[in-house]
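I am still getting used to backbone structure tokens and would like to learn alongside you. Label the sequence line and the structure token line clearly, so we can match residues to local backbone shapes. Go ahead whenever you are ready, and we will take it from there:
>
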Amino acid sequence: MQASLAIAQPKQTIRGRVVDKEAKYPLAGARVYLGTPSSSEQTEVTDQFGNFRIANVPVGRQSVRLSMAGYKEVLLQHILVDSGKETILNVEMEEAITLLEGFTVKIRRNGEASNEMAVTSARQFSVEETNRYAGSRGEPARMASNFAGVQGSDDSRTDIIVRGNSPGGVLWRMEGVTIPNPNHFTEAGSSGGPVGIITNHYLANSDFFTGAFPAEFGNTVAGVFDLKLRNGNNEKYETGAQFGFMGTEFISEGPISKKNKSSYLITGRYANLWLFNKIGIDIGTVAVPKYADGFVRLNFPLRNGNIAFWSLGGTSNIDVLPSTQKVSDRNIFGQNDRDQQYATNMKVMGLTYSRSFSENMYFKSTLAVSNNTQYSKHTFLFTGKDADGRPEIENNYYKIDSLRPLMAFKLSETKYSFVNSINKKWGAQSTLRAGINLDFFDFSANDSVRIFVENIQSWTPWRVRSNASSKNILYIQPFIQLRHYLTPHLSLNIGVTSFASTVNKHSQSWAEPRGGLLWELPHRQKVTLSAGLHSQAIPNYLYFISPDLHNPGSVNSFSKDVGLMKSAHYVAGYSKILTTDLRISAEIYYQRLFRVPVYAVASSFSVLNTVDGDNRLIPAAPMINNGKGENYGLELTLEKFFSNHYSFLVTASLFEAKYQGSDKIWRNTNVNARYAINGLFGREFIFRNGNSLHLGVKYNATGGRWYGPVDAEASREQQEIIYIDATRNSAQFRPYKRFDIKTEYKINKTKLTHTIAVDLVNILGIQNQLNLSYTPEAPYFRQEYQLGFIPVFFYRIDF
């Protein structure tokens, strides 16, 4: 029966390269087994360059085991093999200190972070996970919202809240370089957006950190995405195309020179939402977003080294036009008293050189340039008034008398980055990593606004908030970190980093210690402890918003003396492998935030409450580093890695997130939900012909956001929601709940794979509260809700 099943299935090749984890030196002579230790079917040996190849592998789930004298065994379980693409594995093996009889360490694709300097609050996420989790839409940020300690900020955005911190604190890195916010429709200072630019088509397995970061990560107090890129296939041309709710995509990869093993990988995507809106499918808003993005990587192997050119970019625009829409139309992306045009552009390109100088030393350097631009224009709507003074409505449309310019801005930030690091190891016991990150910013901004004062029927003068051209700032971040095994089962990680910005004398932090202990106990248990001091600068644009109408290009007196925000992280963790594929883990953490920017006058304002990036922060008073904050909680995770055709992930977080403004009153932060629960389950059905069906479900529940009573008169005057300061965050929205279902059917033919998937987001149509938005009629605000039921589907072909 098994033989006939194997003959009926299409075949594919598994190949890859094996290197030392710290020095990245190719490992020749490593044995590669197809199958588990009890069922190995084929055995190969890596060549002098660390390469291996296993041909004629049946499609479906496969396991690969690697072993080599002096190294810890690696077991990669349940790798998905499709007929349309070769499966290429890049494996890093860790040198073993001692080999104890009957004791092996198995490194899985899921779970532990690939960064050996990480002790706690870190995990690796695989490309397959971004596909498999319901509601993730193939985007890293939405996928990470399923982890303990992480919650999504908004159904319509990719911002994530990590342990109660503002989403603006999340750091995005690619190939070691800090990149601009990799999302469409971004606001300055945010880290998310409605649609992610990054897709899983070109990512390798990457790391995500939620606290107590290793020394190489600076300028963040919240979280880190450390993204790795994969190379294109250097032996075979492969093509893919995808059509779905998120866009039409194309991907191509293959060899540039088969002799030299160089390769290319290129992707492109264009939005389809206009089409679905046209045929009557609800996309959550009447304003249709337009966007496009793409990626290129050219890879050139060298003797003991590598050079890679890579580029990522995206452009987006949306027109929110209440003047032409029905009063009853939903418009979650804008305000209802004005027409708004908004456009963004993000691009980054880099050149990465890496080299293994010996079996004990590895060097990596990246030179990159990036740009992030936002443009917006607002036009105020003058409507007719009825007998009660409310906007006049005719046939479900506002009756428009005239349109007048209200606001316009353009922000552009170009950054030149130079990142260098070196790994040096002394045997299996000690590894030193040191480096320096340099970022040089060239910032420009033009920003003007005025307000129509309704009670006197008059405009305020135009206020030039920014008129800055080619303003320069330099970030410098050197670091050094050491991992040392005190015993075969007890390791110590210690390091120090510095972060300095040239924007002012208050933006330097010369010594931030980081450290951690990892103790491996019998019966597959592990205890971890870590602590560190972290800092973060406010967004650069804030330094160039001027309250001085006579000197609009000057450094803003509201922000000119604002320095770095600080946060001390303390984390303790415990984990245990219950069975081969089942793990339980727990972490408790405490974060003490200090030197938080708040207003110099008594106020409840704090930058810790700049939550989701829907609205750019514009200070209303001078800011000083006098605020405080506290985040603490307990996180529990029960995870079954994929085996026996199913997997599940259950996470629960209990936490508090408090802050203190300049009025010295402790309050809940906007995002202090106090609890978050996630449950995910996936089941795969394999058919005799090699086809498969995957079913996934997800349930998410969190506490509601905090808000307060609205100051109606101030809101009418400012034409935006203004809360009563003294009672800020004294009320909470209803708890948030969502249920998603995903189905994916895969058809494997000879050298061809078809994939059909449907992700039913919020299938129960639960009406979750989002925020309050301004309206031009009394009481000058209305309740806005999260996205309702949305079917996200795609068809993909690989050949």
